[in-house]
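Tokens for Four-carbon acid sugar kinase nucleotide binding domain-containing protein. Go.
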Amino acid sequence: MEGRTFLYRVGPPFVRARIGQAVRAPLTEAEVFADVTPNERGGLVVVGSHVGLTSRQLARLSEDRPGTAVAEIDVQAVIEGDREAELAAVVDAAVAALATGDVIVHTSRLLVRSDDPEASLDISRRVSAAVVEVVQRVLAAAPPRFVIAKGGITSSDVAAFGLDIRHAIVRGPMLPGIVSLWQPVDGPAEGIPYIVFAGNVGDDASLSQVVATLSRD
């Protein structure tokens, strides 16, 4: 193999296996908050993914935790209506809900797209920008106990732009072999556990299980 270069297309466990690291058990609540003082507010769950598994996980979370508030970003209003009024209403609802418990902020479940690829890309960018702005404004008004971002692009945008994370420590998995917890070490989200939850991983109960571990109740 000497002199050869390899490109790996792999899942998250690859690095651990490649370097011979032992399998780590999922983090417990005590481990998650061992080095930080948990906020007394609820946690923020941000859902942008539209895959079927995510929708089922979202439904299961609402079923298991019926007291969890839900604030929906109406994509049609963001694209064609009064964007500022829509985002302000979502932010106000989320901030109010965080005072007493967890809140789910999700984009409307009807996927809006166009026959024109460029137009579809523009829609995706505008929706992503709306999600990011909601997270920014909620973080500034009422820093949550934790943040979960559901969806590959959503979790990347929320980390980089919504929470302005530049440096973080990967603390470990929230579920066996999947769903990483990051601990931001600087910026406005410092000390707030951030969970990267791709859209098409886990089973129907996985999102609910992660929220149960992190929630204060």
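The two ends are 53 Å apart (CA to CA).
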